[in-house]
Amino acid sequence: MVIPKKILLHSTSHTISDEMYGADGKLYRVSYMVNDAFIPVKSHAAEVEMLQVYSPDGKSGNEGDIPYIAIQEDDDVYGGVALFEETSRVDAAYEVIPLSGKFMFKAKMEYYGDVMYFYGYKRCGDPYQCSGLCLVYPKEYIGTENERLLMQVLDEAAESYTEEFLNDDSSSFSEPTSENQADVPNKVLQIAVKSAAIIKRIRLIAGLAVIAGILIYLLITNISDKFSVHHIVQLDGSEKTISEFTPDEANDILNAFDIIIPEDEKNARLVSFIRGDRYDKITSYIIEIDGINDYIAFFTANSDRELGRSVNETDTRNTDTKYYITYHERIVNESKSRDSSKNTEAINNIAELFERLYSKQ
Fold this sequence. Notes:
By secondary structure, this protein is of the alpha+beta class. The chain has helices at residues 75-87, 145-160, 178-183, 186-225, 247-256, 295-301, 311-314, 340-359; strands spanning 13-21, 27-35, 38-40, 48-54, 68-72, 93-98, 105-111, 114-122, 130-137, 162-165, 240-242, 269-278, 282-290, 325-332. It has eight helices and 14 strands. Helix 5 packs antiparallel against helix 8.
């Protein structure tokens, strides 16, 4: 995968639609219009639906490519919508704009080293179906014309978004006629009504439990924020992590990433070397450094690094939270590097070093 240098949009759009179940088992047709520079791609992730990836030639596009547009219900989106409903905040987002109508808000947040711009809402009349109409794009686009164009595409998609209730003719959704009612024993009807009420009650209790759990988690997280350092790149727990190194191994890792720690930073230390796989196509290698006192001097010392800047340098969040200094490199498995002309050898060295050190654990 190569990140497009310039976003090229078409003058036309197409409608993407799918049938989804909402509250009380009702069937809806969900649809929105998207610029023809995006094409539909099959998603194998249950929390990602109606996936469209950027492909201006209309011929190529794969799951895992960015930029992409999709309806998502992953933890970041679900938690953000549930929290906003309770508090009018989305703590993980660095920009939130409340809305009225079919969408509750729109927001931007850091998302696995990229940026997610999304509209948060409750889908298909279901109070527990916290969803987002989402756009994911590279951090390199922040503040550029590419970002403006992509956000415009999602804004237009949100404007065209519709949910149409489908009048299912099957017996499970149709009202029984008086003749049918006469054939059904009253006890069966009563049991069915009671069962439906119990199911609704269970769903309500489960939904309230989820919201309560989220609020408790956020309360604990806010307390711990004052006393701990945090990951700036979001991790989902599936990553392989190396957190213990000999001094020589730590030097090898820093050299592989081409990182210089200034001599006066006596407390600086490498705390983790991480590998994460995404969509079976992108492999990310991440290092985290703690104990730096002078961030500006550290970034200046590493300003000539060919592989790029620290994630902290490109992050736009305005927050007092303390994060590890993080460097994040990717390998796209099909082409080995999104910047193969310059960085392939260096990133491959990082990959080989990780596998060697991880095998010793």
